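User: My collaborator sent over this chain with a note saying "see what the structure looks like." That's all I know about it. Can you take a look?
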Amino acid sequence: MKRSKSASRKPRADAQRNRERILEVAKVAFTRSGANASLDDIAKEAGVGPGTLYRHFPSREELLQAVYRSEMEKVAAAERKFAQSMPPLEALRAWLLLFVDAIETKQLIAPALTTLIGDPKKVFAASYARMQEAIRALVNRAVKSGDIRKDVDPMDLLRALVGVAHVATGTDWQQSARRLVDILIAGSRPIT
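Assistant: Without extra context I'll predict from the sequence alone. Here is the result:
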């Protein structure tokens, strides 16, 4: 009996789970071993064959881009989750701490993307827009609640955290950035 193409394909949910597992494993591998981490090892650790990895991500460049985009999407999506489950100031703080982790991902992936594709601005542009939307929504919510001043520029908060990541000379810049989140929150409070 001959099967149709649709009958022989895995369910879409299964393919999505494979993709997500590959992205999670790849993020860890790239963090641990850099952009030259073995793609075969990533596939094996994700519990898929190399063909499945290459079907989703035909090149190292595409996998790196997908890891970056996936991580940035998680940060952007966290804005809604935090806004629904936390008071405004707490949601802003939690999101800024998550943003610190996103900076680390970008620092790991940006040099590799630059090497592979030259100028990765196109890869980063969409993510920047999503980060700006998220931080603006969180700051506006905190302003409306009276938790922070009306003159706080959401982009200043992000610039300060990115600045720490670029200025810091040690590998412990994340601790400094996390302390800076609390300083930024305290400095954004209304003056009484």
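A starting point for your reply to your collaborator: Confidence is low (pLDDT under 50) at residues 1-6.
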